[in-house]
C-alpha cells in the first residue's frame, strides 16, 4: 500500500508539477516495477537472513524514499527517488505474507495470521489515504509527509517481532505442484492487481471528470477500499472456512461488482461502496493465493513460491495503466470505461481460477 499513499492527490500533483496524467502515474507504478527483482531476491535472502532484519531494512527504505520528494522541486528527481522505494517494497512483498506459516501450523491460526497480515496492509492504506487527501489540500508536495507514519511501523517491528520464528515448519510432502501453482497464481495475481489498481490510479481524475469530488473525496474512496480490506482481512479465517475452494472466485465476483458500482454511480455513496467491495475482494484474493502456495509447496520453497506470486502482483501494479488504458481507450475516452474493463478482467480471473481448480481436483 505504500506506493499508493499519494493516489488521492494525483490530480493536484499534475497541476503543481505541470505534468501529464501518464507521467504523474509513474510515481505510483515505478516503485512496483523496481520491486520485481527485489521481490525474488527477498525469497532467496529469507532462507539465509533474519526476516526481521529484512523487514526493518525494507521499511527504512520506504520511509526515506517516501519523505525525500518533499524537498525536491523537479518531478524527474521525484520519480527517481520513488523508483528506489521499490527496493523496500520488494523486500516486504515477500517477507510479510511468509511470516504466518513460519509461526503457525496449517489451520485456523495460520488463516488468522495470513488474514491479519492482509488486514494490516489494508489499514496502512486507510491511514495513508485519509491523511494524504488532507495534506495535499494544504500544498501539493505536503502529501509526501504522510510517509512519516512509517517510523511508527518501524518501531513496532523492531520491538515486537522476534528475530527467529519459534518453530521450524515441517517439510511438505507435495513437491510437484509448486512450479505450476506459483506461476499460475502469479498470472492470476497480475491480472487481478492490474484491474484493482484502476481505482487508485484513476479515481482522482474520474471524480474530477464527472464533477463528483476532489482529492478529499478521492481519499475517502481509497480509504473505503483500505478499510474494507482491513475488516475483511480480520475476518478472513471465517471467510476461508465458509468459501473453501471458491474463495478466489468469490473475490473476483465481489471486486467486479465493486467496479460496476463505480461505473454506474451518480453519487459518492455508491463509489464508496464500490471501492469497499474492491478492497474486500483483494483481502480475500491475496491470502487465498498465499494459502494455495503454502499447501502445495515444500516448506523450504514456500517463501520463494510467494515471491514468484508477488512478482505477478508487482508487475500488475506496474503495468496496470499500460494494460487497462489502451483497452478502454479503444472503446471510449471516458475514464469510466477503465472501471468497466477492470470489471471484465476480474470476471476472467475468476473463470480461470474455477477452471484450474476443477483440473486440480481431476488430477488428485
Distance between the termini: 37 Å
Proportion of residues in β-strands: under 5%
How big is the Rg? 19 Å
Judged by helices, strands and strand pairing, the structural class is mainly alpha
pLDDT < 50 stretches: 171-178
Helix tally equals 14
Q: What series of H and E elements makes up the topology?
A: HHHHHHHHHHHHHH
Structure summary, number of beta strands: 0
What global shape is seen? globular
Oligomer: single chain
Helix proportion: over 70%
Biggest sheet descriptor: none
Query: On the 0-100 scale, what is the average pLDDT?
Result: 85
Task: Please provide a written account of the structure.
By secondary structure, the chain is mostly helical. The longest helix is centred in the middle third of the chain and has 33 residues, at 178-210. The relative contact order is 0.16. The chain is globular, with a radius of gyration of 19 Å. The protein is built from 14 helices and no strands. The two termini are 37 Å apart. Mean pLDDT is 85; it is low at 171-178. α1 (10-17) crosses α2 (21-45).
List the helices and strands and how they pair.
Elements: H1 10-17, H2 21-45, H3 51-67, H4 75-103, H5 108-138, H6 150-160, H7 178-210, H8 215-234, H9 236-243, H10 247-264, H11 268-296, H12 302-318, H13 320-331, H14 336-363
Amino acid at each position: 500500500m505504500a506506493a499508493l499513499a499519494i493516489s488521492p492527490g494525483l490530480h493536484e500533483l499534475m497541476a503543481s508539477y505541470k505534468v501529464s496524467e501518464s507521467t504523474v502515474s509513474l510515481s505510483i507504478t515505478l516503485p512496483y516495477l523496481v520491486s520485481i527483482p527485489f521481490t525474488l531476491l527477498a525469497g532467496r535472502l529469507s532462507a539465509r537472513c533474519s526476516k526481521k532484519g529484512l523487514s526493518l531494512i525494507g521499511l527504512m527504505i520506504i520511509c526515506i524514499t517516501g519523505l525525500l520528494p518533499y524537498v525536491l522541486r523537479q518531478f524527474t528527481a521525484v520519480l527517481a527517488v520513488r523508483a528506489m522505494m521499490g527496493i523496500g517494497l520488494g523486500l516486504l512483498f515477500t517477507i510479510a505474507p511468509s511470516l504466518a506459516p513460519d509461526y503457525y501450523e496449517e489451520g485456523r491460526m495460520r488463516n488468522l495470521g495470513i488474514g491479519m497480515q492482509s488486514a494490516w496492509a489494508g489499514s496502512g492504506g486507510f491511514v495513508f489515504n485519509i491523511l494524504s487527501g488532507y495534506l495535499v489540500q494544504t500544498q501539493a508536495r505536503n502529501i509526501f509527509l504522510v510517509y512519516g507514519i512509517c517510523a511508527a511501523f518501524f518501531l513496532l517491528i523492531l520491538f515486537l517481532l522476534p528475530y527467529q520464528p519459534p518453530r521450524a515448519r515441517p517439510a511438505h510432502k507435495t513437491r510437484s505442484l509448486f512450479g505450476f501453482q506459483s506461476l499460475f497464481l502469479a498470472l492470476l495475481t497480475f491480472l487481478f492487481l492490474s484491474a484493482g489498481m484502476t481505482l487508485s490510479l484513476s479515481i482522482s481524475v474520474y471524480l474530477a471528470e464527472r464533477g463528483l469530488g476532489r482529492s478529499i473525496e478521492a481519499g475517502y474512496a481509497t480509504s473505503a477500499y483500505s478499510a474494507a480490506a482491513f475488516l475483511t482481512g480480520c475476518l478472513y479465517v471465517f471467510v476461508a472456512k465458509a468459501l473453501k475452494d471458491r474463495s478466489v472466485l468469490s473475490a473476483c465476483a465481489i471486486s467486479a461488482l465493486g467496479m460496476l458500482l463505480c461505473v454506474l454511480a451518480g453519487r459518492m455513496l455508491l463509489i464508496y461502496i464500490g471501492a469497499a467491495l474492491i478492497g474486500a475482494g483483494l483481502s480475500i484474493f491475496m491470502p487465498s493465493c498465499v494459502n494455495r502456495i503454502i499447501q502445495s509447496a515444500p516448506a523450504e520453497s514456500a517463501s520463494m513460491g510467494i515471491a514468484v506470486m508477488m512478482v505477478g502482483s508487482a508487475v500488475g501494479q506496474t503495468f496496470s495503466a499500460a494494460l487497462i488504458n489502451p483497452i478502454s481507450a479503444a472503446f471510449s475516452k471516458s475514464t469510466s470505461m477503465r472501471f468497466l474493463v477492470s470489471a471484465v478482467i476480474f470476471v476472467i480471473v475468476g473463470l480461470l481460477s474455477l477452471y484450474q481448480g476443477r483440473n486440480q481436483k481431476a488430477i488428485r
